[in-house]
Design a protein that fits this description.
Glycosyltransferase; globular; mainly alpha
Length: about 350
């Protein structure tokens, strides 16, 4: 079992770390990461709009569940900031905010920022959030190819990665707020089919990493699977259920066979065990726990808790001051020598979920 007392202590420290990440940017987004080694003497990088979007959702949940942190004002302030940095066509640009050095819109970032806009709307029902959500959703839908895929405005302009399932999810979720769920679900049908067909017979997905034909960090593997899990919860599509069942069972069998989770996998399930991708490890802990709640199979809950317990001693060290490292060891292949803000977000998501038990 998870030590809930120790978990509460770390949640508090990580919450405080995230608040500092906003303070360091002048309250204009959450800083991408902290690294004394890579970010200079200040330690904090520039704001990262993409992850700021979905961090707001976590802060709202923290306030509601823990009941002791009046952070509504911060959430609304940051949601307002997200509306000010949108492009006129509704898109958001890639990269960190400096202000934007990049001039390239980003499919993935725009999708993740929808979470922050939705959180802002839930907090105070301001119509401006719905207006921006509508513009961003419209841009995302218009940016697709005829087959429903997104092939432009990706990471390094690569072809459509499987983790775009995590873009479909916020579009569907946004459509509920907009009162357009059935219409947008129908419009998204070819997109869902396109990305669903990236599932391979062995349970992996074609191009579920940052670069096609290369191993995928567990971070993007979890993005892919969480996206599909949430799409299933919204659509109840049996094809997606079977997709999830096959992929999650395949991954669970691989973990059991090898006794641990790798930091990355190729499409033959060959793992890179030279490091742990902490973010992906946390995200997959969440995915397995959510799947357990859906199918009521205790083996998934046990795996989720086991994965979390493997890394909790590393991330609960007081020397981190609440930050969650990118890799174990610290110099590992995923965000080495950094404490990324999204690692903190996914730790908090998992911790809050377990504390509900």
């Amino acid at each position: 079992m998870v030590d809930k007392a120790a978990l509460r202590v770390q949640l508090e420290a990580t919450y405080e770390w995230l608040i500092r990440s906003f303070e360091q940017t002048g309250w204009q987004g959450s800083a991408h990461s902290y690294s004394y080694w890579l970010n200079g003497n200040a330690g904090w990088a520039e704001a990262y709009p993409e992850t700021t979007g979905y961090i707001l959702e976590t802060l709202q949940q923290y306030q509601e569940q823990m009941g002791s942190k009046p952070i509504c004002e911060l959430i609304i302030q940051q949601a307002n900031w997200l509306t000010t940095i949108a492009q006129t066509n509704g898109s958001y640009l890639s990269g960190r905010y400096q202000p934007y050095l990049s001039k390239q819109p980003s499919i993935f970032n725009s999708g993740q920022i929808l979470f922050g806009l939705m959180t802002g709307y839930k907090m105070n029902k301001d119509q401006k959030y719905l207006t921006q959500i509508q513009k961003t959703v419209s841009w995302l839908l218009d940016a697709r190819e005829k087959d429903g895929s997104w092939t432009q405005w990706g990471w390094r302009n690569s072809s459509s990665p499987a983790y775009y399932s995590r873009v479909i999810w916020p579009i569907l979720l946004s459509s509920q707020l907009l009162g357009q769920f059935q219409d947008i679900k129908q419009v998204l049908a070819p997109t869902i089919i396109f990305y669903r067909q990236l599932l391979l017979p062995n349970g992996t997905f074609e191009h579920w990493g940052f670069e096609k034909d290369k191993s995928a960090f567990t971070h993007t593997i979890a993005y892919t699977l969480r996206g599909w899990l949430e799409i299933y919860r919204l659509t109840k599509d049996p094809n997606i259920y079977h997709l999830l069942q096959h992929s999650l069972q395949s991954l669970m069998q691989r973990i059991r066979k090898e006794g641990r989770l790798a930091g990355a996998y190729d499409n033959d399930w060959q793992g890179d065990f030279s490091f742990i991708c902490v973010t992906g490890h946390l995200q997959l802990s969440i995915v397995f726990y959510l799947w357990y709640e859906m199918v009521e199979d205790e083996s998934y809950r046990a795996l989720s808790i086991s994965l979390f317990q493997q890394i909790f001693p590393y991330i609960s060290s007081k020397r981190h001051r609440g930050g969650i490292q990118g890799s174990i060891p610290f110099y590992g292949k995923y965000n080495p020598l950094r404490y990324p803000n999204w690692a903190a977000k996914f730790f908090m998501d998992y911790g809050l979920m377990v504390l509900k038990e």
